């Protein structure tokens, strides 16, 4: 994001100090999990995505190696008028041996530090995390993240059963971790993966972060989704962030990770995930549009509930997703919502040249403005995504240049859910209020995911039958699963006999979930 803030009147003594601070809001956080610091309220904030250029306030200054000795006579700079600092992280030099921070510290200094803490630094001495002349290999963090993933896999006791020719995996280990009502693996597995062991079947999607393929494990036929991230194109910290999140989360509404590995050349990281056969909400929306159909309230409500459950879980782990949008909301074959893509798509540099606008459309005003933001920004993105799904169009004009879109998002009235009488589409007041709540421009008035889960619309939808499995089957034209021989009609069969009008509206006014050509 580009935000331009006045820095106050230009001081006479600071001729070279620009009067404006230009902030580029990147999608990266210095903390891989975007977690709140200790002592902060449970609702975390994330202002770390703003890396300032031409600003003297950045916390990761660039220390250019210099041979000049510090001049003790030199007056310290006035606050706010410090030297030009550019937040580019540590300086790297290729071809040099990696020196770890601890190697740069003598035993005497280590002893002093243990005694007095890191504040006991001599003039010119640098805190250990910013060694001035050492060179940290950026891939080290990545290797650590991969190692952690492997360790957590090895500590797991789960087993994986294969459904030959099918796509689902199921965990047969009892009592392991998160509740496992729908056969979703609740822990990762004790398996190692390599390119040789995975047969690539089909491409599933491509984003700024890399390509995703459907693959089959040649050892047992299990089908997975394999995400390939090219470390040359994506910031390593972004990959580490995704690995850390995906490897430490276990929730039915979060895509499960089964492993990750690095290509021998270290140029690619591959993440092995559960395959979500229902595809993304983006793909589903396109399919529905092609069919000239409308998504009904109950389906929209179930999708919203799944997203909010995932977000509430992430929030409980002090994490903000930061990139909720239809292409990152997936559905399983059973119609279970799964959030994916924790790397945050595209750096601003990337984004400005194309993908940015796509992501920007879903961003909360406070995020667009580059101000501090919380988990409530994910709630805004959820509202925009649901609005897009049910209206089958972007809630904002999609052809606006980024800069105009920023103005619309930050200054215009938030979009609302409106009836379309000419198309015979009406929405319940509860649903309209739900959308209105998610799109409160002032984040302080916008509820958290957990609060949104108690909204009457969600409560109403959750008290009704779940038709997600049938709906996703209709969207993709999958055949009905064979009847169970229990002697009773299953819930899906019962629901088809529910009265609904030809345009998909049910008798109590709201749109039904079966508007996909039914
Ligand atoms: N586990 C999965 N199962 C099925 N399809 C998937 C899965 N993960 C990703 N996809 C498909 O691949 C697409 C891109 O995935 P993902 O969002 O993770 O990549 P990305 O490069 O990070 O994208 P973005 O540009 O949004 O950052 C998704 O929109 C979806 O269609």
Task: Provide an overview of this structure.
This protein has 518 residues and is α+β, with helices and mostly antiparallel strands. Helices cover 29% and strands 14% of the residues. The chain contains 15 helices and 15 strands. Strand 13 (329-331) and strand 14 form a beta hairpin. The longest helix is centred in the middle third of the chain and has 20 residues, at 297-316. Mean pLDDT is 68; it is low at 1-42, 46-70, 75-105, 116-134, 156-187, 345-358 and 489-514. The structure holds adenosine-5'-triphosphate (ATP). Adenosine-5'-triphosphate is lined by residues 204-205, 207-210, 212, 225, 227, 255, 273-276, 279-280, 283, 327-328, 330, 340-341, 343, 345, 355. Residues 204-205, 207-210, 212, 225, 227, 255, 273-276, 279-280, 283, 327-328, 330, 340-341, 343, 345, 355 line the site of adenosine-5'-triphosphate. ATP binds at residue 227. Keywords: ATP-binding, Kinase, Nucleotide-binding, Transferase. GO terms for molecular function: ATP binding; MAP kinase kinase activity.
Secondary-structure blueprint:
Layout: E1 2-6, E2 20-25, E3 45-46, E4 50-53, H1 107-116, H2 139-155, E5 160-162, E6 169-171, E7 198-207, E8 210-217, E9 223-230, H3 236-248, E10 257-262, E11 268-274, E12 279-280, H4 281-290, H5 297-316, E13 329-331, E14 337-339, H6 348-352, H7 355-360, H8 365-368, E15 373-374, H9 376-391, H10 402-411, H11 429-438, H12 449-453, H13 456-463, H14 468-476, H15 491-496
Antiparallel strand pairs: 1-2, 2-4, 3-15, 5-6, 7-8, 8-9, 9-11, 10-11, 12-13, 13-14
Helix pairs in contact: 2-3, 5-9, 5-13, 9-11
The chain binds adenosine-5'-triphosphate.
Keywords: ATP-binding, Kinase, Nucleotide-binding, Transferase
Pfam family, one: Pkinase
Biased composition (Basic and acidic residues): 94-109
